[in-house]
Amino acid sequence: MKFSKLRVILMLVMALxxxxxxxxxxxxxxxxxxxxxxxxxxxxxxxPPFEAIGDGGERVGFxxxxxxxxxxxxxxxxxxxTMDFAAIVTATQSGQVDMGMSGFSISPERAEQVSFSxxxxxxxxxxxxxxxxxxxSAADLKGRKIAVQLGTTxxxxxxxxxxAEVVKPESYNIAFMxxxxxxxxxxxxxxxxxxxxVKRGMFKRAGEPLSFEEFAMITRKGNDDLLTAxxxxxxxxxxxxxxxxxxxxxxx
Length: 252
What we know:
Blueprint: H1 5-26, H2 29-36, E1 38-43, E2 52-53, E3 59-60, H3 62-74, E4 77-82, H4 85-94, E5 99-100, H5 108-111, E6 115-116, E7 121-123, E8 125-130, E9 145-147, H6 153-159, E10 165-167, H7 172-180, E11 186-190, H8 191-198, E12 203-206, E13 213-215, E14 218-219, H9 224-239, H10 242-249
Parallel strand pairs: 1-4, 1-5, 9-10, 9-11
Antiparallel strand pairs: 2-3, 5-14, 6-14, 7-13, 8-11, 8-12
């Protein structure tokens, strides 16, 4: 069926009008966040002291306090969305959540998928073993079983150790449970997370840190205004002493 020129022009005008209306309705992520008064955040609360579920069932941790403080500077509230760590990047990309904050280390691989905020914490990966273990360094892990949380930079460091078997459960709680029950010989985790489990008395660190890493918040690529607002609020939280107080609270 053929269309007249007038009919084609009218259809183009209608299409352009609908597109313009659609963009106007959608707005940027920051505009939607401001309008809703809250920001949805993907988080895996199994990474103490950065995020965990407290005795009362509430979400607690350094990341939780820090983002609450950042959000307060932006005049909004935080709506935490619990999900597996490995799923947060995809959820952020798809718009299921506005951003992710869950001890994300900045890495080239992730930088291809999402945008990072300014760094908010420096860390690195270390080896954790049982208190009675003879493992003293990465060289001693050849032929051993290492447990790491799926999708973490700990996984990347474990994969570099030749001759080791790497198992990848969905949480560090399971990884350390495997270490405690001798289902694994070692866990590789961020320094602060490792030290949190070492405090409980059953484990110790082995050798020097395997890496230097910086933590950052993640957003979908193109969310530049949201990223700018987050960075501005983070700088304000650092400048007014709130950041230092949160660091002290969590003994980091």
